[in-house]
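To make this tangible, this section ends with a sequence with its structure tokens:
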Amino acid sequence: AIVAWVPETQTSTEKSRTTIPSQIPLKDVIYNIGHTALVMGALASGDTSVMRTAFTDRLHQDVRLAAAPTSKAALEAALTTSAWAAWLSGSGPTVAVMCDKASAASIAQQLPPDGVTHVLEIDALGAVLSAS
């Protein structure tokens, strides 16, 4: 499941993008590219044990979280639970948490009260075309 924590505050995507440095160290770019492959492998194999590491970021998340302290608190809270992974969704301030479906409601209750949580099911099948 995905638990989406949406704070009461909003951010501007355009403004949030201006906080990202125009030059990023190559080692950080390589790190994120490698972790993208790790995410794909973990999702394809169902190996939840590597997801927390796979979803870490060195390009934008820390900069954006610095401007969204409630989102940072939610992300930190999510990572103290049994969640497989948590990350800043888009430019923020939403925090997404991936977890076992059976744990989703419990994890949602452990996130800060100054936001709204939505428990979302993952559609493993995706879009389907069918002849009518």
Summary: The first strand starts at residue 2 and ends at 7. DSSP finds six helices and four strands in the chain. The chain has a mean pLDDT of 94.
